[in-house]
């Protein structure tokens, strides 16, 4: 699986958009970008994924650059409950086993 | 909304004792996983399980570890002789084979403390 690079921590004001970057310059054509988050020792939670196109769901938006070498997770209106570690993961979507390799992630602090 | 459940939420044991951590994956899921997270460290993959056998395991998953799906619902992780360094959060996860994007659903975890 391709490696990803994320900043170790970020701050965001409550109610503002949180933009979390991820570099994945060695991504292969059949690899997806997944985002998970982990709120203080809870189990990781799936947020969103994408291959080439930008994606949006009820939790977040995912912007993938045209060359697919980087992406940004956007939480449009961050709340205090969004304080968590956010993991950007690149993975082939249909390999047997589908294991997830977690990096260190970005620790997002949402401040009132 | 369906969810993965794990029991117990916290297990304290003496070094050298056997522990069994239990998970109930989402009912129509077919792939099952165990991960662990030592305090302050990354979430680490341990093992994946499909069709009643291990499909992949990491270097961490040595002979002291075993997994089993004894019935149609439970998925267990056994540590035969616990060591101090086994103290960690253990997360179970599952995937539906029919999922178009292979979202993994994680349980809330079991905190294992080895004394």
Report on the structure:
The complex is a heterodimer of chains A (112) and B (115). Chain A is mostly beta strands. Helices cover 0% and strands 46% of the residues of chain A. Chain A has no helices and nine strands. In chain A, the strands form two sheets. Chain A has a five-stranded mixed beta sheet with strand order 1-9-8-3-4, with no helix packed on it. In chain A, strands 2-7-6-5 form a four-stranded antiparallel beta sheet, with no helix packed on it. In chain A, β3 and β4 form a beta hairpin. Chain B is mainly beta and 115 residues long. In chain B, the strands form two sheets. In chain B, strands 2, 4, 5, 6, 9, 10 and 11 form a seven-stranded mixed beta sheet that branches. A four-stranded antiparallel beta sheet of chain B has the order 1-3-8-7, with no helix packed on it. Chain B is globular and about 40 Å long. The interface between A and B is medium-sized, with 22 and 27 residues.
What labels describe this entry?
heterodimer, A: 112 residues, mainly beta, 0% helix, B: mainly beta, 7-stranded mixed β-sheet
Précis, in short:
With 112 residues, chain A is an all-beta fold. Helices cover 0% and strands 46% of the residues of chain A. In chain A, a hairpin with a 5-residue loop joins strand 6 (61-64) and strand 7 (70-75).
Q: Radius of gyration of chain B in whole Å, from Cα?
A: 13 Å
Poorly predicted regions of chain A are none
Q: Which shape of chain B, going by the Cα principal axes?
A: globular
Kindly report the average pLDDT value of chain A. Answer: 92
Strand-and-helix sequence of chain B, N→C?
EEEEEEEEEEE
Topology, number of strands of chain B: 11
* Cα-atom radius of gyration of chain A: 13 Å
Largest pleated sheet of chain A:
5 strands, mixed
Which geometry of chain A do the CA atoms define? Answer: globular
Strand content of chain A: over 45%
Report the total helices of chain A.
0
Largest sheet of chain B: 7 strands, mixed
Largest interface: A-B, 22 and 27 residues
Q: Structural class, judged by helices and strands of chain B?
A: mainly beta
Order of helices and strands of chain A: EEEEEEEEE
Overall pLDDT score of chain B: 92
């Amino acid at each position: 699986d391709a490696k990803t690079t994320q900043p170790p921590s970020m701050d965001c004001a409550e109610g503002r958009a949180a933009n979390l970057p991820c570099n994945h310059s060695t991504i292969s054509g059949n690899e997806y970008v997944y985002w998970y988050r982990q709120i203080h020792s809870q189990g990781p939670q799936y947020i969103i994924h994408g291959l080439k196109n930008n994606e949006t769901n009820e939790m977040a938006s995912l912007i993938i650059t045209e060359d697919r070498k980087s992406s940004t997770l956007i939480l449009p209106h961050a709340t205090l409950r969004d304080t968590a570690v956010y993991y950007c993961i690149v993975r082939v979507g249909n390999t047997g086993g589908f294991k997830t390799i977690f990096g260190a992630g970005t620790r997002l602090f949402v401040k009132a | 909304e369906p969810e993965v459940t794990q029991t117990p939420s916290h297990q304290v044991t003496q070094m050298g004792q056997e522990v069994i951590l239990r998970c109930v994956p989402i009912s129509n899921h077919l792939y099952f996983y165990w991960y662990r997270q030592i305090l302050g460290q990354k979430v680490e993959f341990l093992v994946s399980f499909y069709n009643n056998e291990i499909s992949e395991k990491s270097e961490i998953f040595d002979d002291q570890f075993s997994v089993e799906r004894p019935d149609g619902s439970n998925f267990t992780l056994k540590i035969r002789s616990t060591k101090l360094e086994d103290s960690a959060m253990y997360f179970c996860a599952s995937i539906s084979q029919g999922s178009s994007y292979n979202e993994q659903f994680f349980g809330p975890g079991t905190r294992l403390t080895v004394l």
